[in-house]
Design goal:
There is one protein chain. The chain is mostly helical and 274 residues long. It has twelve helices and no strands. α5 runs antiparallel to α10. The longest helix has 38 residues, at 183-220. The two termini are 46 Å apart. The relative contact order is 0.11.
Length: 274
């Protein structure tokens, strides 16, 4: 065996010996929680030993106790339901309009040429830049909030639906011509099923965007029942435990939305798996 052969084989053996061990299913499930759990432990230590000012960083048990009290006697449950209702109404309108217009643009080159530049400009405008205009046109009440949430859900569903239809392979269209498919058969049998992964991706993103916009609408427009209103209350009254508890609740709802949307997407797309 030559020296060159030994030199070329040695790094392979060392790299293989350093390969990470496979993780158990429980470890794979718990690994994403490692950093959030570490931050919570650090938070509790800072509050417990007086390193952090309790006016700005109350202990975790104080935040939890405030949450229990708010759900039992403070009406936080009704505020949460008001935010969820507002979010889902805006999402349905915005996502429905986004999917419908995305299908039209994807199937029509003429509409794509007409609306493409306008949509490109629309994508460059930050979402919260529309707040002053929406408040003037629709007011700062419930209608303005729902319009703002719908606008947040509209953009990702529109773009993903458009891209899904536009990315259908050309040989699918040629196959439809060979099979003498009509336009309606092509749309329902080939185009929409082929675009479903992108459509579901847009709906998933639109759901998360809509929840973010719900909080923004409640914070920036007129005060109304909702989690954003309670956050405003915590800020103005300097009740840090209430403010942090609402932030935790917002994040928890967002995680639930993400899990539910991902699960539904996998279930509905199971027919595509081999």
């Amino acid at each position: 065996m030559s020296l060159i052969t030994i030199a070329t084989r040695e790094p392979l053996s060392s790299s293989s010996s350093l390969s990470p061990l496979p993780l158990s299913p429980v470890a794979r499930y718990l690994r994403p929680l490692a950093i959030p759990a570490s931050l919570l432990v650090l938070w509790e230590l800072l509050a417990r030993f007086g390193v952090a000012d309790p006016r700005f960083l109350p202990a975790l048990e104080q935040v939890a106790a405030r949450g229990v009290a708010e759900f039992n006697h403070g009406g936080l449950g009704s505020n949460l339901l008001a935010s969820l209702e507002r979010d889902l109404i805006g999402f349905v309108f915005g996502a429905g309009a986004g999917v419908a217009l995305g299908l039209v643009i994807g199937f029509s080159r003429l509409v794509q040429r007409l609306l493409g530049p306008l949509l490109l400009v629309h994508r460059q405008i930050a979402l919260f830049a529309w707040v002053p205009l929406i408040s003037l046109w629709f007011g700062g009440g419930e209608t303005g909030k729902v319009v703002f949430i719908a606008l947040a859900a509209f953009q990702p569903t529109l773009i993903n639906t458009w891209q899904g239809v536009d990315s259908i392979p050309r040989h699918y269209r040629e196959l439809a011509d060979v099979l003498i498919f009509g336009w309606r058969d092509f749309v329902w049998v080939i185009a929409i099923p082929g675009a479903l992964p992108q459509i579901f991706t847009g709906l998933h993103a639109g759901l998360i965007y809509a929840w973010t916009a719900t909080v923004g609408a409640e914070l920036l427009l007129n005060i109304a029942p909702g989690l954003g209103g309670r956050m405003n209350e915590g800020q103005h009254l300097f009740q840090m435990d209430l403010l942090l508890m609402c932030i935790f609740l917002l994040g928890g709802v967002g995680v639930v939305f993400n899990i539910v949307a991902g699960t539904l997407e996998r279930l509905l797309m199971r027919w595509r798996m081999p």
